[in-house]
Amino acid sequence: MTRPFLFAALLALPCPVLAQTDTLIPVSIALDWTLNTNHIGLIAARDRGLYTEAGLEVDILPYSDTNSAALLAAGTADFGYLTSLGFMTAAAGGADLTALWATMQHDAGRLVYNSDNTSITRPADLSGMTYAGFGSAWEAALIGTMIANDGGDPVWDTVTLGTGAYEALASGAVDFTLEVATWEGVNGELLGRRQSSFRYADYGIPDQQNGYIATRGAVLAERPALVADFMRATHAGYAWAADNPGEAADLLLAAGDFPNAALVHGSMRAIVEGGYLRDAARPVGGIDPDRFAGMAQFLFDSGVLKDASGAALVWPGDVSGWFDQGWRAE
């Protein structure tokens, strides 16, 4: 082959990897906590190439001491994975954040106690007992509402222990705590702990959605195509995980440092079998406007949402502008 023909042949060869890499748009998302099964759709979209197919190079920022709502509001990340409380607190405080997505279609939280503690049969029995807590105002509003709605006196002692709460409960050092059924609950079962629980929604707490993915209002207004591309690839990642929990667990294990593979697999099963990722009434990631507003009003009415001076904020009457799922439109 002569040199001109050789050059022509080489130029004609496809080079998809290089071309694709050259055109990928960098995007970042900050996590609300250390990597866990709630984040599975992000990992699936990244590691199965869905973000790359959408023309994006996504950096999943590790959890840090600065919460994801603050990182997002400050412009450190393009998107943020936020707890319901984290998002509502930031939005109520005036941060220009918009929720695009809700991962968990039902509240996986529950109040737990030792099954062998025969003095506890209902939330009203918790009055005067000792709670192992995590230091948020939400906990007091939640527990007080559950006890009062069950006819009890909402008075109890609190010791703030963080993740040490579960060992304290297992040893009998405290009477009750809160847990996420799809993680701590699964871990408790693996450890053989005998625990019983009360569902929040059975005692007057709105059945909240959780695990919001949000962005800044400016990003949504100025780069709607980017938001749509990122969210559609994310949706595909979560939908795949909902259909393939075992493979999804293996993918997550490969992406992070998890000492207990059984916990990751058990958590994925609990999330899928419990109907947390996919609800018959909504698509994966769908935000329910009524439940969104219901939880926001509960947080306002309970005095959980405060201004910079510490005063409780007043219910604004409408929070429909706090979320936007226009990216679903074709």
Automatic annotation (TrEMBL):
Pathway in which the depicted protein is active: Cofactor biosynthesis; thiamine diphosphate biosynthesis
Signal peptide residues on this chain, from the entry's feature table: 1-19
All residue ranges annotated as the SsuA/THI5-like domain in the record: 36-248
Keyword RNA-binding in record: no
InterPro entries hit by this protein: NMT1/THI5, SsuA/THI5
Keywords annotated in UniProt: Iron, Metal-binding, Pyridoxal phosphate, Signal, Thiamine biosynthesis, Transferase
Catalytic activity reported: N(6)-(pyridoxal phosphate)-L-lysyl-[4-amino-5-hydroxymethyl-2-methylpyrimidine phosphate synthase] + L-histidyl-[4-amino-5-hydroxymethyl-2-methylpyrimidine phosphate synthase] + 2 Fe(3+) + 4 H2O = L-lysyl-[4-amino-5-hydroxymethyl-2-methylpyrimidine phosphate synthase] + (2S)-2-amino-5-hydroxy-4-oxopentanoyl-[4-amino-5-hydroxymethyl-2-methylpyrimidine phosphate synthase] + 4-amino-2-methyl-5-(phosphooxymethyl)pyrimidine + 3-oxopropanoate + 2 Fe(2+) + 2 H(+)
One term of GO molecular function: metal ion binding
Any one Gene Ontology BP term: thiamine biosynthetic process
Role this protein plays: Responsible for the formation of the pyrimidine heterocycle in the thiamine biosynthesis pathway. Catalyzes the formation of hydroxymethylpyrimidine phosphate (HMP-P) from histidine and pyridoxal phosphate (PLP). The protein uses PLP and the active site histidine to form HMP-P, generating an inactive enzyme. The enzyme can only undergo a single turnover, which suggests it is a suicide enzyme.
Family to which the UniProt record says this protein belongs: Belongs to the NMT1/THI5 family.
Subunit structure: Homodimer.
Protein name: Thiamine pyrimidine synthase
Lineage per the UniProt record: Bacteria, Pseudomonadati, Pseudomonadota, Alphaproteobacteria, Rhodobacterales
